[in-house]
């Protein structure tokens, strides 16, 4: 068997295995092919910033909890010195209780989680799906009780069934703003929107329709200050229903039920509460994970989702590198771009992750230019190779430190990111470039430098593409396909694009 | 673009990818490439097979040997310093003769002892070697080249490159230094490559920087119709290089010394493809024929005869 056939068979085998697993996952297990195709998850954060004055502090806030319809994952608490207790309260939700006996100054507490929301289609719990007995609410004074009964009986008379009764109740309370009975019956202790919802709940319950007030956030767009919303959930004529004051959200997340306040705090002042939301499109891995688990799939045994999150992040970068390398092989073997070093451009491309593309290219070019200048200066001193390289490394570190300082003074973040820019790569690039400069020509050196930058940029773009990241992370079997493509490219004997120019003189067409 | 691709394929052009896959990877096993990457090894093999090479005055393999430096440099006819593992002519310094306070370089500038020591140190630290490995500096006889090429060269040493496939010389060119190439004969530095008729050893047309040319850019003399002296000896030397190294695809670089005749400078396991432009032919058909030829039991001389026959089958006799 000659080496061409051998290579082709091997490539075919690898591609078949890779694509086979990929197809099984996509077609049989319904893995989404693109990030965020089915669902979006949200980064949710509660940020509490408050003053304390050496008094014991107790701060209780509702936090999201799991149910059949919604999901919380990757929870993180930033407590500082505070004690934290989680409390699952029957019926209304889950709370986090932060306590501290002798706090001082301003304190910050944070809660972060990733949310997978629910929609108006999501069913209500079974406990709500049964008719109640009609009963008048318990109120403190008889007058109110009387008014309530008169009003609700009137509503009942004007309606045909539970559904129309509920519609009528909501109409009177929320739409016709000036119904006297409503104004009189609203609870004076609650804020207006919740008071109306509470009244609606009481009326519906008194008429045998299960209802409750729900509180949470609408998952509609990224918000630095998201509002806590309130709405009504009820069950009428065998149907789950929700009533949202204002327009209906397409997706929302219930944090707690009932009319309690979101936060109860003792011993603090000047509370600044911030709830923020951020959609996460690229990563639905935990959704995918759940789907696979539901099906008891054999594909589970090899999945990056089983790894701890920090390790996952590493692999998220790592598995995209082969795609960058594939790009590099293509640009070198088919286009014929010349680069400094073989895989150096991919390494530079990885470095661009820290700086983003434009900043990366600017910094890279600037540092290389500075480094080359020093390198040529050192040439005059006739130093030995290794100490000279070391001098250039030190110089690059100094340059990077200076840039970080300047950027920090200007409040730019890129100064911080550049410190991770791999300087050894930079130094080696400088050294190779200076050799090319001396031994070939300045044009050749610049050509190779630009070639490296182009390849690095191309590799960066494919490696950071969200689809590529998503596919490689969730379908690592595609690595086999990449390997197969590399094998096939290893036997490419055609001309390179650059050779069409190089050998243009042999073009016999006249 | 596609039209150009087809035209070049039709012209029989061999590309880098195909060279690497079909020639270098197939015919040159890694362990053999080592033999020609180290020029000391090449020289030893060549001398053992009676292939003449420039005389080796000495080597400096570590800083301790540096004390010999001045004795190696003490040659009235000059000396060539080169890294044993250098590639593409990088790191080669030619000292023509001693002069006041130093040595005259091939470009006429003066090199001080300090400059030379720095250069040797750079060689030792691996600056010019293929993989950056520590290297060895070689001190060699400086070739006093034959005057035949004087009308069409400018400073430095012209050399003859013969590409040998499975011991059969396939295609050849002479590389001429120019002002642009700073006395070096390397094509990528601006040297002129002139195709050679493999049968007669006569110069054909030339190329510089990828463009065809029929005159030398500095002397303006036509490049055509120079006969390379000792042509058959050179072909035989190149063919023998296959026997001593076993490399199925190699480029033999030969210089023509005024008194010593042809000398093998170095062997290259990955010779480049610009030779096609210099000869204005694509060498794929010729290579395919060479790869198929039966060379069982043939010695170097017989292979040279076979080479001439194959070459003439593909390339017509030049008419001037």
What does the model show?
The complex is a heterodimer of chains A (510) and B (320). Chain A is of the alpha+beta class and 510 residues long. Chain A has a 4-stranded antiparallel beta sheet with strand order 3-6-1-12, with no helix packed on it. A 4-stranded antiparallel beta sheet of chain A has the order 4-5-2-11, with no helix packed on it. In chain A, strands 9-8-7-10 form a 4-stranded antiparallel beta sheet. The two termini of chain A are 43 Å apart. In chain A, helix 8 (321-335) crosses helix 14 and helix 11 crosses helix 13 (423-439). Chain A has 17 helices and 12 strands. Chain A folds into 3 domains: 41-120 and 263-286, Sandwich (Immunoglobulin-like); 126-249, C8orf32 fold; 311-474, no CATH class. Chain A has helices spanning 3-28, 142-157, 162-175, 180-185, 192-206, 285-294, 309-318, 321-335, 344-355, 357-381, 385-409, 414-418, 423-439, 442-464, 466-474, 478-489, 497-502; strands at residues 41-53, 57-63, 71-78, 83-89, 93-100, 104-116, 211-218, 229-236, 239-243, 252-257, 263-266, 268-280. The relative contact order of chain A is 0.13. Chain B is an alpha+beta fold and 320 residues long. Chain B folds into 2 domains: 2-52 and 146-314, D-amino Acid Aminotransferase, Chain A, domain 1 (2-Layer Sandwich); 56-141, no CATH class. In chain B, the strands form 2 sheets. Chain B has a 7-stranded antiparallel beta sheet with strand order 11-10-9-8-7-12-13. In chain B, a hairpin with a 3-residue loop joins strand 12 (249-257) and strand 13. In chain B, helix 7 crosses helix 10 and helix 9 runs antiparallel to helix 10 (300-314). The two termini of chain B are 34 Å apart. The mean pLDDT of chain B is 89. The chains are: A alpha+beta (510), B alpha+beta (320). The interface between A and B is large, with 30 and 41 residues.
């Amino acid at each position: 068997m000659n080496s061409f056939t051998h290579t082709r068979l091997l490539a075919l085998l690898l591609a078949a295995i890779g694509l086979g697993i990929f197809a099984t996952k996509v077609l049989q297990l319904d893995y989404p092919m693109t990030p965020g195709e089915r669902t979006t998850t949200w980064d949710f954060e509660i940020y509490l910033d408050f003053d304390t004055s050496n008094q014991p502090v107790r701060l209780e806030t509702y936090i999201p909890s799991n149910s059949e319809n919604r999901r919380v994952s990757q929870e993180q608490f930033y407590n500082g010195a505070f004690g934290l207790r989680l409390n699952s309260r029957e019926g209304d939700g889950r709370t986090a209780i932060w306590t501290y006996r002798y706090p001082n100054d301003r304190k910050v507490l944070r809660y972060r989680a990733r949310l997978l929301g629910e929609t108006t289609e999501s069913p209500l719990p079974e406990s709500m799906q049964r008719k109640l007995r009609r009963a008048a609410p318990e109120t403190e004074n008889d007058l109110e009780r009387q008014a309530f009964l008169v009003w609700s009986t009137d509503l009942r008379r004007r309606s045909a069934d539970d559904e129309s009764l509920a519609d009528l109740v909501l109409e009177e309370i929320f739409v016709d703003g000036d119904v006297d009975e409503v104004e009189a019956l609203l609870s004076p202790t609650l804020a207006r929107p919740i008071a109306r919802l509470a009244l609606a709940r009481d009326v519906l319950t008194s008429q045998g329709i299960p209802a409750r007030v729900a509180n949470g956030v609408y998952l509609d767009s990224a918000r630095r200050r998201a509002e806590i919303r309130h709405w009504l959930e009820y069950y009428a004529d065998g149907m789950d229903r929700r009533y949202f004051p204002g327009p209906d959200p397409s997706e929302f997340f219930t944090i707690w039920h009932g009319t309690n306040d979101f936060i109860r705090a003792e011993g603090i002042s000047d509370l600044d509460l911030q709830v923020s939301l951020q959609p996460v499109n690229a990563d639905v891995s935990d959704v995918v994970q759940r789907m696979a688990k539901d099906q008891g799939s054999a594909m589970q045994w090899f999945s990056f989702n089983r790894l701890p999150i920090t390790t996952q992040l590493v692999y998220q970068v790592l598995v995209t590198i082969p795609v960058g390398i594939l790009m590099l092989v293509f640009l070198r073997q088919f286009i014929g771009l010349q680069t400094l070093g073989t895989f150096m451009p991919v390494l530079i491309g990885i470095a661009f992750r820290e700086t983003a593309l434009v900043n990366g290219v600017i910094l890279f070019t600037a540092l290389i230019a500075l480094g080359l200048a020093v390198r040529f200066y050192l040439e005059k001193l006739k130093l030995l190779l290794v100490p000279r390289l070391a001098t250039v490394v030190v110089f690059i570190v100094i340059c990077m430190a200076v840039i970080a300082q300047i950027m920090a003074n200007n409040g730019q973040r890129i100064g911080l990111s550049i410190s991770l820019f791999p300087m050894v790569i930079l130094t080696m690039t400088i050294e190779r470039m200076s050799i090319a400069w001396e031994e070939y020509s300045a044009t050749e050196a610049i050509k190779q430098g630009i070639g490296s930058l182009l390849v690095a940029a191309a590799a960066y773009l494919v490696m950071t593409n969200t689809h590529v990241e998503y596919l490689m992370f969730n379908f690592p079997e595609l690595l086999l396909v990449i390997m197969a493509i590399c094998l096939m490219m290893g036997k490419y004997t055609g001309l390179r694009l650059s050779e069409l120019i190089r050998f243009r003189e042999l073009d016999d067409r006249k | 673009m596609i039209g150009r691709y087809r035209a070049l394929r039709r012209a029989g052009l061999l590309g880098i990818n195909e060279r690497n896959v079909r020639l270098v990877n197939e015919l040159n096993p890694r362990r053999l490439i080592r033999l020609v990457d180290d020029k000391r090894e090449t020289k030893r093999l060549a001398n053992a097979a009676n292939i003449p090479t420039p005389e080796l005055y000495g080597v400096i393999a570590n800083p301790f040997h540096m004390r010999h430096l001045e004795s190696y440099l003490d040659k009235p006819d000059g000396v060539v310093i080169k890294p044993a593992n250098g590639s593409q002519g990088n790191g080669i310094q030619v000292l023509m003769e001693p002069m006041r306070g130093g040595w005259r370089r091939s470009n006429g500038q003066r090199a001080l002892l300090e400059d030379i020591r720095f250069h040797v140190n750079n060689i030792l630290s691996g600056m010019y070697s293929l993989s950056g490995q520590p290297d060895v500096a070689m001190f060699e006889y400086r070739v006093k080249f034959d005057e035949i090429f004087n009308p069409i060269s400018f400073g430095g040493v012209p050399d003859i490159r013969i590409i040998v496939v499975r011991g059969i010389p396939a295609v050849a060119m002479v590389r001429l230094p120019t002002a642009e190439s700073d006395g070096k004969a390397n094509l990528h530095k601006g040297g002129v490559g002139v195709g050679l008729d493999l049968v007669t050893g006569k110069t054909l047309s030339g190329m510089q920087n990828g463009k065809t040319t029929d005159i030398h850019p500095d002397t303006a003399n036509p490049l055509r119709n120079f006969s390379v002296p000792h042509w058959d000896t050179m072909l035989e030397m190149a063919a023998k290089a296959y026997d001593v190294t076993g490399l199925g695809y190699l480029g033999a670089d030969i210089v023509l010394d005024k008194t010593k005749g042809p000398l093998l400078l170095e062997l290259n396991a990955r010779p480049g493809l610009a030779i096609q432009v210099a000869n204005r032919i694509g060498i794929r058909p010729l290579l395919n024929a060479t790869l198929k030829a039966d060379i069982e039991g043939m010695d170097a001389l017989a292979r040279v005869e076979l080479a001439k026959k194959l070459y003439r089958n593909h390339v017509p006799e030049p008419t001037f």
